[in-house]
Amino acid sequence: MLATIPDSATARAAADLAREAAPPFLLNHSYRTYLFGAALVTKDVDQEAAFVAAMIHDLGLTERHRGSVDFGQVGTALAARFLERRGWERDRIRLAEKAILRHTRLLPEGNPTTRLVQLGARVDVAGRGAKKIDSDVLTGILRAYPRLDFPHQMRTAFLDEARRQPNGSFARLERIVKLSTRFTANPIDRTA
After folding, report:
1. Helix, strand, coil proportions of the chain in percent (round to 5)?
2. What is the tens place of the pLDDT at every residue in 142-151?
3. C-alpha–C-alpha distance, residues 64 and 188, integer Å
4. Rounded CA gap, 168 and 184, in Å?
5. What are the residues whose beta carbons fall under 8 Å from the beta carbon of 7, sequence distance 6 or more?
């Protein structure tokens, strides 16, 4: 069964923020990130914070929000401002910030909310962990939020960010694991 997307005013506003800035391939990636992660991490998660983080985590790659620093830092600052305006407590804001900032780390995070975003993005980008998701759930997520041209569009955005930020997280992932070669080899593309 698919996880339920949080329906709070903050969650809806985060989805609107993403919808206004992200092209369709990236918007669907944000939803899939949350849903794949929710299929993998089910205990002790702040679902609302995880959803907000998933919706904002890649907005630093968009024309509207791209900055002069790593996209993760841009997303973290964007999330902090967004959540401060909604009156969130500092600890919950830090939780969402941490989920955004650490979603590109290779080792699984200990905090369940952070790990949800990290593992969800990992499934959607490279297929890692997809076999741990029930096949009906995986298919349901892909039907609800199709991949569109995600592999090619995200690879382009990834390489552009790695070039613009040579000390950033995408450049690091390219040096360590040659991530750009994995976008078009994701096994979930054979599922849909």
Report:
1. 70, 0, 30
2. 999 999 999 9
3. 29
4. 22
5. none
